[in-house]
Amino acid sequence: GSTSKILPGVEQYEIVYPRKLHTVHKRDVERNKEKKYDDTLEYEIKANGEEVILHLEKNKDLLAKDYTETVYSDDGQQITTSPQIKDHCYYEGYIQDDADSTASISTCTGLSGYFETRGQKYLIEPLGSSDRDEHAVYEYEKLREDEPIKTCGVVNSSWDVHSKYRIGDIFKSSNSPEMKAYLKAKKYLEVYIVADNTMYKKYNQDVETVRQRIFGIVNYINTVYKAINIYVALIGLEIWTDNDKCLLSRTAGFTLDSFSKWRNSDLLKRKRNDNAQLITGYDFEGTTIGLAFLKSICSDVYSAGIIQDHSRNEIAVGATMAHEMGHNLGMSHDTKACICNAKVCIMTDTVSSIIPKLFSSCSLQDFEKYMLNDMPKCLTNIPDINTIVAPPTCGNGFVEKGEECDCGTAEECTNPCCNPETCKLTAGSKCAHGECCENCQYKAAGTVCRAVKDECDLPEMCTGYSGNCPSDRFRMNGHPCNEGEGFCYMGNCPTREQQCKAAFGPRATEGAASCYRMNERGVYYGYCKKKSGSHVPCKRKDIMCGKLFCTGGQEMPTYGSLVTFESCKASFPRDGEGDLGMILNGTKCGDGMVCSNGECVPAEDVFRSSDCSAKCPGHAVCDHELQCQCEEGWAPPTCDSSSAATSFAIIAVVLVILTVTIIAAALLIYFRVFKKSRQTRRGPGATNQVFVDQEQGEHPGLAIPAQKMNDKKLLLPVPPPQENKPQLRS
């Protein structure tokens, strides 16, 4: 019942004593001998006076396989470890007999976390130190809101990581097989979380306390994002135990900018990640509690967000981090036009006393649109099993060493090709996953599994002995593209015109030739290279390979700051940023010439691709790594036999031609017989030229075309050859 004990920030709560129910199966006993925390748990607890049974299953996606922790010694020395965390106390689950229920609970020191049942959200936290001691259970609405309302830091008006004009959009359609496959694919977001020095001090300089809080936050975020088929794994935790590694302040915009630069210049050089989030003890100015860049996931510079540790409850902070990550994933704030199947949804712009867990209709549309337009590759990169240092875990959705497949837990698995208990293929199955796996069997060699996206791409085709589609391959570097205006380079067709549209919008065009004389000056707005911090001027022959100059379009560039003179405009970076306003490597700078590291050099010196395809067997061409790749319609590895689809097409053509030939022959015979019979009946009229002319006029040209078709040779068709600063959101 109610209690008079003081629980900070809570108006009223119940005292309950959870009762642990026995759930360990016999087959799990040996495996669980060394485990402190069971894989599955059941507790009977009271919620609003009603007994409910809480089913919990360990969150196997909580930590990435190459998870690391970094702290610092008193003298600033970086200490990074790869803890083999085989056991942890973070669970997901549901309430028995409630299909719409959910739970995110830690059992480290008693039960702590969040659960929802019968449409009501509850929080539970221990008042003792074990799951047998008394606990407080309360409705989230019972939290007191003594503080000012908490909101977004920056309105939806800043820069997007990509311009509205996107090269290649014309090649993309949500109806294409590639788009459908990408949307359907399970996505993995490996996030790196940094706790700053104020956060460390806030929790009494106790690394374990900070770690448990971060794990609880990620555990909640995982339950949120699994609803849209994204599995969030913590790939690294860093605690700034001595001092902050970049300048931070109460100004959220400054802090986000500083943190994102640190991630790009320092963190990514030592630890790969898809996204980084800073959690800080700073109280941001105004009502801001979080800030992030929009549409920036996978970006080295902008895939980042910052969160204020604004609540004593880790679930509330987790909801804020889920919100900021939503911005990184292309989601804007909810409006009144959005449909939300709850009181509030994740992307609401104002934090209330209700914990959001669902995404609104607008968020789902924003997410799908961003995924289709950008197809961020880092989300589908499953770590190489050879790089995994932790032992394999059957049921976590990752195919690891010793596993033939992994379709999740027995409750989650819907794949008939995979046994969820053993992570082995079912009887008769050759595969369970991949674009080249259909009905548990390999697709035929030569079946297209990744279609051509544009003129600098090559199709990928199934090998016939693997369920996975081969890695993405591109046209040979140096292949002409954009009607001869450019060269294919690493799958793109870079031209100055398109780079200007990306920098200043679709109405921008390349600057006049006179603009590029500025590159001979060797200043921040006109140069070719940087050496020891100095801007090196371009030689006259290289001026088309230095700073990019444009005209027209929007006033401000999508990245950096604006510099303009006469009709020429360019961008230059802010302090600490890389210069994104330089002409890209691979851009054509003259006949047979291409830009390479600020110099205009012969294309062959860079691409070294002449006569490469002549060395390839059968119907194969060279790709961007000068390896032979089959043209569409020809099966790997030799490319000298047609694929199943092509063979079917050829057979179909042959049958059509044969059918037409037979019909034509039949008509020829029929009309010859018919004509002869008419001549036999004609009698005297046969010598009258008028009758003869009329007879010939009745059936003009029937026999002659049929005879011509009959004389033609049947030729089978040959398969055809194959041809950024973001918006800030909080």
UniProtKB/TrEMBL annotation:
Residue span(s) of domain Peptidase M12B: 187-383
Membrane protein topology class: Single-pass type I membrane protein
GO molecular function, one term: metalloendopeptidase activity
Cofactor(s) needed for function: Zn(2+)
Gene Ontology CC entries for this record: plasma membrane
Region annotated Disordered, chain positions: 701-730
Main location: membrane
Covalent S-S links between cysteines: C298-C378, C338-C362, C340-C345, C449-C469
Pfam families: ADAM_CR, Disintegrin, Pep_M12B_propep, Reprolysin
Active site as annotated: E324
Keywords, comma-separated and alphabetical: Disulfide bond, Hydrolase, Membrane, Metal-binding, Transmembrane, Transmembrane helix, Zinc
Domain Disintegrin, chain residue ranges per copy: 391-477
GO terms, biological process: proteolysis
Protein's cellular compartments: Membrane
CDD domains given in the database record: ZnMc_adamalysin_II_like
Gene3D superfamilies: 3.40.1620.60, Collagenase (Catalytic Domain), Disintegrin domain
InterPro entries assigned to the protein according to its UniProt record, in alphabetical order: ADAM_Cys-rich (IPR006586), Disintegrin_CS (IPR018358), Disintegrin_dom (IPR001762), Disintegrin_dom_sf (IPR036436), EGF (IPR000742), MetalloPept_cat_dom_sf (IPR024079), Peptidase_M12B (IPR001590), Peptidase_M12B_N (IPR002870)
Residues at which Zn(2+) binds: H323, H327, H333
Protein name: ADAM 28
Organism: Anas platyrhynchos
Taxonomic placement: Eukaryota, Metazoa, Chordata, Craniata, Vertebrata
